[in-house]
Amino acid sequence: xxxxxxxxxxxxxxxxxxxxxxxxxxxxxxxxxxxxxxxxxxxxxxxxxxxxxxxxxxxxxxxxxxxxxxxxxxxxxxxxxxxxxxxxxxxxxxxxxxxxxxxxxxxxxxxxxxxxxxxxxxxxxxxxxxxxxxxxxxxxxxxxxxxxxxxxxxxxxxxxxxxxxxxxxxxxxxxxxxxxxxxxxxxxxxxxxxxxxxxxxxxxxxxxxxxxxxxxxxxxxxxxxxxxxxxxxxxxxxxxxxxxxxxxxxxxxxxxxxxxxxxxxxxxxxxxxxxxxxxxxxxxxxxxxxxxxxxxxxxxxxxxxxxxxxxxxxxxxxxxxxxxxxxxxxxxxxxxxxxxxxxxxxxxxxxxxxxxxxxxxxxxxxxxxxxxxxxxxxxxxxxxxxxxxxxxxxxxxxxxxxxxxxxxxxxxxxxx
Length: 416
Fold this sequence. Notes:
With 416 residues, this protein is of the alpha/beta class. The chain is built from eleven helices and 18 strands. The chain has helices at residues 5-13, 41-54, 89-100, 102-106, 124-139, 149-155, 182-195, 239-244, 308-321, 370-383, 397-400, and strands at residues 31-37, 59-62, 78-79, 117-121, 145-148, 170-174, 178-179, 199-201, 206-212, 215-221, 224-233, 252-264, 272-275, 280-284, 289-300, 330-341, 347-350, 356-360. Strands 1, 2, 8, 9, 10, 11, 17 and 18 form an eight-stranded mixed beta sheet that branches.
C-alpha cells in the first residue's frame, strides 16, 4: 500500500478497516544471500539500499528486540553535516542530502525539519576554531555562516548571553541542519525494505557465528541456525559482543548516552542549539517537548540506562545556557548504548574474516549518519568495494595511522 492523501481519504470512508501492516512478521528462511545483525537505523537502511539500489532482496535483518528498540529510537534526533575533516564532512553531507529526500524516497512521513543548527562559541579561541570549521565546510561545498553575538541574540533572545564564565560571543550556523522523528526513520526503512522482499525477523537474538574453513556460513540464533553467503554486523553498542563470536577484538568501547525530554511547552526554541562551553544540545519537538542531552556516562556499560550524576550534570549545563529551563519539568529520559571508537569516528569495512562485514563505531554521530551509513554499507556488501565517501572509515586506519580525530582527543573513546 502506498501512503497518500488519497489513501487516507479512502481508508476514512471504509472506517479505517483496510490498512495493512507496515511490514510482515516472517519466519526465517534456511538461507539468505545476506544476513544483517541489528534492526536499528543502520541495519534497516542497509537492507533497504541493498534491495533498492543493488537489487539484492534475499536479505534478512535479525533483531534481538523489536524494531526501534535500540539507539535509533533512543537519541535526540539531530541531523547535520557541520564537520571539519575530509574523512567526515563529505560523508555527513551525503547523508544530509539523502535526508532531504528520504520521505519521498521511502513513502513515509519521517517529519524531517531543517530548522537550522547553531554551535555557540564563548571565547576568542573557540571563535577561531569555529571559523576554521566553517571554512572547511565551505571548501567541501557545504554552506556555513559565522554569526556574531547580536545576530545570535536576535535569533535566540532567551539564551544566557552574560554568563560570568561563558558569555555567548556568537555561533556557527548551518541552516540545513535540523531534526527528524527517530522512530519514524526506523519504521520507514523497515517498511521500504519489507516491500522489496527483505525479511525483518524480530525477537531473534544471535548467539553464535558459524564458520567453515575460515568462511562465515551463517548465524546461530534463538530461532535456530540461519545460513548466509554474507554476514553484516550493524549491532551498535553490542558490536563487541557479536564480534567476539567471530574472534574479533575490535577498537570499540561501549558507553551509555542519556537523553531527556521535558513536558510539552509552547514553541520557544526554533533551532537546534549546542553549548560550546559544555557538551549540551537541545531542540524542541513538534509535540512541544524540549529534547536535550549532554556527554556520555564515563564508564563502560551495555545497559540502556544511565546514572544520576550525568542527569545532574546535564541539567546544570542546560540551565546555565537557558535559565528558563529551570521552570520546566523533565517528563522522561532514556539511554542509548554507544559503540565508541578510539578516534571518535565510524568504521565501515570488511573484516579479516571472509564474508564478514562491519559497520560500527558511530559514537554520538550514529543517527544523523543513518542514510549514508546504510547506502555505503550496502555498496560495500554488494560490490566488495568501499564507497568513495566512506573511504577514510576503513578498519585498518588505526594500524596505518590515519585516524579521523574530529575532536582532537586522541585514542580515548570516553572523550569523543
